[in-house]
Amino acid sequence: MSTLIPRPSSVRLRQLLKASCEVFQTVYNPDNIRTGNKILRRKMKGPAAISYYPIESPVKFRHIRAAYPMFEFPNTPDEHRITMNELRKRKGKGPPKKKEGKVI
After folding, report:
1. Contact 38, 26 (CB under 8 A)
2. Comparing C-alpha atoms, which of 84, 86, 64 is closest to residue 74?
3. Residue 44, SS3?
4. Is the separation of the CB atoms in 27 and 37 below 8 Å?
5. Does the pTM exceed 0.90?
6. Are the CB atoms for 74 and 83 separated by under 8 Å?
7. What angle do CA 12, 16, 20 make, to 5 degrees?
8. What gap in Å lies between CA 10 and CA 99, rounded to an integer?
9. How much is the pLDDT for 11?
10. Residues 74-100: b if buried by 16+ CB within 10 A, e if exposed
11. C-alpha atoms less than 13 angstroms from C-alpha of 68 in its C-beta half-sphere
12. How far is CA 85 from CA 64, 77, 82, 93, 99, in A?
């Protein structure tokens, strides 16, 4: 013969929920209001993002070149750009020639 166990009252279930929240150190939120605790529990992203990028030096290459004009420093990005433009012109991929004639 099986006996049916009566269901606990809603007040008793709330008390149980509150006690379990205290024991397991979770937030007691009986009304299921959105509180943002899920996001607040996450590990902070700020320190990881800051450490990802290297610290930028206040001294730039142009400052060094201006401080020592007696030395010739190669400007490799500019030289590379110029050589690539020359290659494109030889292949016929350069900018189109301007039209001679009427000016509107």
Report:
1. no
2. 64
3. coil
4. yes
5. no
6. no
7. 170
8. 86
9. 92
10. eeeeeeeeeeeeeeeeeeeeeeeeeee
11. 8
12. 27, 12, 5, 9, 21
Span 46-104, pLDDT tens digits: 888 878 888 888 888 888 888 998 988 887 888 899 999 999 999 999 888 888 876 66
In this predicted structure, what is the pLDDT of residue 41?
A: 83
Closest CA to 18 of 10, 27, 7, 9: 27
Extract the tokens encoding 26: 């979770």
Who contacts 67 (Cβ-Cβ below 8 Å, separation ≥6)? none
Widest Cα–Cα separation across the chain: 109
